[in-house]
């Protein structure tokens, strides 16, 4: 595979709906080989049900962002171009992890907009996770 779109799951279904909607518009306007819905606990399946197209792969074993990326790497191997869809509060940590997991690929991380209240709530969560990943 040369160009892959990856959509990360979430416990928040409305957030997954936004991610799938953004992925749909990106997928239609670009030339991706496939789309991967990544997330355990039914997240990947939920996003696949919302998807309007075909050519998708389910990665439904992951429960963390790092697992999302590691399990996706097992599926796609070395890929020239990877676009990851998440939310804006999650972009910095996802970008950091993706560069470690896919060192030979061109990786873009795109975030769907979130409300200010959600962003503030997630800031501390994301920051603590990012620090943990940096010092592992």
How would you characterize the overall build of this protein?
49% of the residues lie in helices and 21% in strands. It has five helices and five strands. A five-stranded parallel sheet has the order 3-2-1-4-5, with helices on both faces. 31% of the residues are buried. The model has no long low-confidence stretch (mean pLDDT 88).
Provide the fold topology:
Elements: E1 3-8, H1 13-29, E2 34-38, H2 43-50, E3 56-59, H3 65-76, E4 81-87, H4 91-101, E5 106-112, H5 116-134
Parallel strand pairs: 1-2, 1-4, 2-3, 4-5
Helix pairs in contact: 1-2, 3-4, 4-5
Task: Please give a handful of descriptors for the protein shown.
136 residues; alpha/beta; five-stranded parallel β-sheet; 5 helices; 49% helix; 21% strand
Helix-strand category: alpha/beta
| Radius of gyration over all CA atoms, rounded | 14 Å
| Order of SSEs | EHEHEHEHEH
Q: What overall geometry do the principal axes of the alpha carbons give?
A: globular
Mean pLDDT: 88
Uncertain spans: none
Percentage of residues in DSSP E strands: 15-25%
Question: What is the structure about, briefly put?
Answer:
The protein is built from 5 helices and 5 strands. It is an alpha/beta fold.
């Amino acid at each position: 595979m040369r160009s892959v779109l990856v959509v990360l799951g979430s416990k928040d279904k409305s957030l997954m709906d936004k991610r799938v909607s953004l992925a749909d518009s990106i997928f239609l306007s670009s030339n991706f080989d496939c789309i991967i819905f990544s997330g355990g606990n039914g997240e990947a399946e939920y996003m696949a049900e919302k998807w309007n197209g075909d050519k998708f792969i389910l990665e439904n074993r992951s429960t963390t962002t790092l697992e999302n990326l590691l399990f996706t790497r097992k599926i796609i191997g070395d890929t020239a171009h990877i676009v990851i869809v998440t939310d804006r509060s999650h972009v910095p940590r996802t970008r950091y992890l993706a560069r470690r997991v896919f060192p030979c690929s061109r990786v873009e991380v795109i975030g769907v907009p979130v409300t200010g209240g959600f962003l503030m709530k997630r800031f501390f969560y994301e920051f603590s996770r990012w620090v943990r990943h940096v010092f592992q």
